[in-house]
Specification:
- The protein is mainly alpha-helical.
- Helices cover 66% and strands 7% of the residues.
- It is built from nine helices and two strands, in the order H-H-H-H-H-E-E-H-H-H-H.
- Strands 1-2 form a two-stranded antiparallel ribbon.
- Strand 1 and strand 2 form a beta hairpin.
- The radius of gyration is 21 Å and the shape is globular.
């Protein structure tokens, strides 16, 4: 793509696209810088950000969104309440004695946070051996792939709340097992 944009035969449309890409890249860098400044201004937010980024799959965007949506972990009492807010908690569907459907996540959850957690869970499955084993175990049990990803999402939420509540970074247990 860069070779195409730097060739002398490039038309005005490609040059305009190149300028737009450069402008948007600068905007992303400045926004990320501003987010880091805001996080560093408050000591508790900065500490929670550092704790959250110790988890595999959590970077600047997911950690800052978690801090924002949870009100720096003061808005929700437990990870289960936040899971329900995001729409990742499975709910059973029943109607008397005749209708029994499989458990499903509620459609009214916060879609932005749910999609960020989905991306974080896919990254965590690739880079965290514990979550990869957990995901593969769920698939071996015959669970659907999206159900297994949802389980990993909930596990990440539980880990995030545990890390912040404990006040210590996440430690991989397999490294310290005898």
């Amino acid at each position: 793509m860069k070779a195409l944009l730097t060739s002398p035969t490039t038309d005005a449309g490609c040059i305009s696209l190149k300028r737009s890409i450069e402008y948007l890249s600068k905007q992303v860098i400045s926004i990320e810088k501003r987010i880091k400044e805001i996080l560093s201004e408050d000591a508790s937010m900065h500490k929670n950000y550092e704790l959250l980024t110790s988890l595999k799959g959590f970077g600047l965007v997911v950690a800052s969104q978690l801090i924002y949506h949870t009100g720096n972990f003061t808005r929700f009492d437990s990870w289960r309440a936040f899971s329900s807010y995001c729409g990742t908690a499975p709910f059973e569907h029943r109607s008397g004695t005749s209708i029994h459907k499989r458990k499903q996540c509620h459609y009214l959850g916060d879609r932005k946070m749910k999609s960020l957690l989905s991306m974080a869970s896919v990254s965590a499955i690739q880079h965290d051996s514990e979550l990869r084993l957990y995901y593969n175990k769920k698939l071996a049990e015959g669970k659907d792939k999206m159900l297994a990803v949802n389980n990993v999402r909930n596990k990440l939420i539980a880990r995030a709340f545990a890390v912040v509540k404990r006040g210590t970074p996440y430690v991989v247990l397999q490294q310290h097992a005898a």
